[in-house]
Design brief:
Number of helices: 5
Mean pLDDT: 92
Number of domains: 1
Structural class: mainly alpha
Protein name: K+-transporting ATPase, A chain
InterPro entries: DUF2834
Order of helices and strands: HHHHH
Organism: Roseovarius marisflavi
Number of strands: 0
Radius of gyration: 15 Å
Pfam families: DUF2834
Distance between the termini: 8 Å
Low-confidence stretches: none
Shape: elongated
Keywords: Membrane, Transmembrane, Transmembrane helix
Largest sheet: none
């Protein structure tokens, strides 16, 4: 399972990043413009909030598990979640949790 999680983390980095880089190429490195594009209509705003809430829930879970299990390496999934996306952060954390010595039960 852990290699599947790693593959999903890589895919979850590359696939969305390709779209972000395309957008930056067409519009310049305007983060506020990108946020505005995310809220272009009600459907995309709903998706943004869905992912934001999922990212916060994942962060709370990671933080709680890191404190409980003392698996400090898992903390790298938090910036991965907010800088890349839930599509990277969640499988990355599951990969780290499932690794030998990760004290995971997966």
């Amino acid at each position: 399972m852990r290699w599947i999680f790693l593959a999903l983390a890589v895919w979850g980095t590359i696939h969305p990043m390709a779209y972000f880089l395309q957008w930056f190429g067409e519009n310049g490195y305007d983060l506020m413009g990108m946020v505005g594009a995310w809220h272009a209509n009600a459907a995309s705003s709903g998706l943004v909030w869905d992912l934001t809430i999922a990212a916060i829930a994942l962060t709370v879970w990671i933080a709680a598990e890191v404190v409980k299990r003392r698996m400090w390496l898992g903390l790298i999934a938090i910036p991965a979640t907010f800088c890349i996306g839930v599509s990277c952060g969640l499988p990355l954390y599951l990969y780290l949790r499932a690794r030998p010595g990760g004290q995971g039960g997966i």
